[in-house]
Specification:
Blueprint lengths: L5 H16 L5 H9 L20 E4 L2 E3 L2 H11 L6 E5 L5 H8 L3 E6 L2 H13 L5 E5 L12 E6 L8 H5 L1 E12 L4 E10 L2 E10 L11 H5 L1
The chain binds S-adenosyl-L-homocysteine.
């Protein structure tokens, strides 16, 4: 496990100030960013830049989202301690830890098997026991653990996946970037009934694509 020292803590509080200037207001979300050591989630080579407001490559062609994006999606989710939340796109695990810091029970799905194993090991070592990592295709959600109070998608979708909408409780919130492969609008969906929802648009973002199916280790090697 890497060390978290005063220098890292200082860099984190500067990052928090930057996020406040960019419009993040939720005190609990800012406290989470101020506490979770983002440099644990990056390759050693990038650790130096962990507290700049940028996305980075994390292997398997995937990225760790920009801190502003993580803060914004988390703020939009209005996390409560009693919430059961589903995240699609575990990636580095950073977003998962920010959510878990807020006290919810979190299920997170990753389709890249190599990344799933790497991140599961890291989250275990960090003792985030209220996070349950799942390997699979996020388009299917998790029938086993549904329904969820909230669902967060951290990959760019072309539309709102109907299975995920089904697995959201009535009154629940889904935060999902919807658009094409180059850019997406951040939508917040509030489920009103089994067939209707209210939609809010929270601006332009850019994510790696929400892909169907899984990418297993065997397929990655050969
Ligand atoms: N939340 C992550 C962001 C990772 S980038 C973090 O904090 O680091 C998006 C992730 O979504 C990638 O790891 C990608 O492999 C994953 N992904 C894309 N489509 C998926 C799908 N259908 N099911 C599960 N994960 C998916």
């Amino acid at each position: 496990m890497r060390k978290d020292n005063h220098r890292h803590q200082g860099l984190r509080s500067q990052l928090v100030q930057e996020l406040i200037v960019k419009g993040i207001q939720d005190e609990d979300v800012l406290a989470a960013i101020n506490t979770v050591p983002r440099h644990f989630f990056l390759d050693e080579a990038f650790a130096e830049w962990a507290y700049t407001d940028k996305a980075f490559q994390i292997g398997s062609g995937q990225t760790i989202s920009q801190p502003y994006t993580v803060a914004k999606q988390t703020e939009l989710l209005e996390v409560k301690k009693s919430d059961k939340i589903l995240e699609i796109g575990t990636g580095s695990g950073y977003q998962a830890c920010i959510l878990a810091y807020l006290g919810c029970k979190l299920y997170t799905i990753e389709r890249q098997e190599e990344l799933f194993h790497k991140t599961s090991a890291l989250l275990n070592a960090m003792k985030f026991h209220q996070i349950r990592t799942l390997f699979g295709d996020g388009y299917q959600g998790s029938e086993r653990f549904a329904p969820f109070d909230k669902i967060i998608i951290t990959a760019g979708a072309s539309s709102i996946p109907s299975i995920l909408f089904k697995q959201l409780k009535i009154g629940g919130i889904m935060v999902i970037p919807v658009g094409d492969t180059s850019s997406q609008r951040m939508l917040r969906i509030k489920k009103i009934s089994n067939t209707s929802y209210i939609e809010e648009d929270h601006g332009n973002f850019s994510f790696v694509p929400f892909l169907g199916g899984t990418n297993t280790l065997a397929a990655a090697r050969f």
